[in-house]
Known about the structure:
The protein has helices spanning 2-14, 75-78, 126-137, and strands at 37-40, 44-48, 57-63, 68-69, 81-83, 88-96, 100-106, 111-116, 123-125, 139-141, 151-153, 162-165, 169-178, 181-188, 193-199, 209-211. Helices cover 14% and strands 39% of the residues.
Amino acid sequence: xxxxxxxxxxxxVTGSFVQAENVVPDRIITDTIxxxxxxxxNNEVIVYSEPDEKSAIKQKILWTKDDVIPQNLTKADLxxxxxxxxxxxxxxxxxxxxxxxxVIYNNQTGERGWIKKDDPYKFNTWVNFYSMYGKKYGLKIxxxxxxxxxxxxxxxxxxxxxxxxxxxPEVINLNIIKGNWMLVTVMDVDRTPKTGYIRWRSDxxxxxxxxxxx
Length: 214
């Protein structure tokens, strides 16, 4: 029994046993608003200074469910979304070319660089990302979003008629996206479905809602 406890203690101390955690935004993000999509990366990421494999390499990154190398980076630094059960890592994209995407590879410092696409279908604009995952998993309101995000309108316009309010939503289902607006169907705690338009991002790109990924 003592040997088992000793082994478990050594594993804990040396960090060989690491509990990976999901990375999903839970509050509004103001420091990466100049992004317009995401890219799903493989476990090896080579970041170049320019969209050219002959340019200087800014960073080489290896990641698994349990670790990130270099070790000064965490999954929260690297990804805008990481889902452990799917081994899915998504990085924020700030620019895109035919074979390349410019990504933020350190969310703490804002450092960015270019990675070569290994599959063009791994890049999605925010609208495509929200359409895909928002319809599948529903949406959540991010902490720090203004109260006006709970106002539901009859059309996608700030001057449109307010038709309802989101109170304590159990489910927010995405129907369609129109610019900075979404048509959603909400099930509040009173179990009465309500449908209307809400703002999902500001004119400057601050996102107020996010797919309810788990």
